[in-house]
TrEMBL record:
Keyword Transferase: yes
Keyword terms, alphabetized: Isoprene biosynthesis, Magnesium, Metal-binding, Transferase
CDD domains membership: Trans_IPPS
Annotated protein name in UniProt: Decaprenyl diphosphate synthase subunit 1
Annotated GO biological process: isoprenoid biosynthetic process; quinone biosynthetic process
Amino acid sequence: MKRESEAVLAGDLILSAASIALARIGNTTVISILTQVIEDLVRGEFLQLGSKENENERFAHYLEKTFKKTASLIANSCKAFPEMNAMIMRRFSLPGDVDRARQYVLQSDGVQQTTYLAQRYCHEAVREISKLRPSPERDALIQLSEIVLTRDK
């Protein structure tokens, strides 16, 4: 019970720090959009706590949870940065769009964060796969997770 209380307080602290950071932005459009992201993330956490019996309901539940926790962050973050959103909406059709978007990505820590998450999930997958009895299939799954981390494209 004490651990749960600590987790709740840690979440409250993170939420309050995010709110303070949002307030400092001063752009009401960005604040409104990112506030929606925070709400979706919290609702996604609640959805993650639940599960459905029926396979179709489970999949629909999974999609909703994934939207609330991930897609909302990406979609609304693009809205918060109008120039990037405009490039996405026009499908990078103007000269320089791709280079400009690439620079935005390189200036952020998105690539590093994505690499870190991929490594974490692949290591977790290998740990779980390693529990299976030795077989060529198990070895292929482990090799596949290593390929995912080392591929160039």
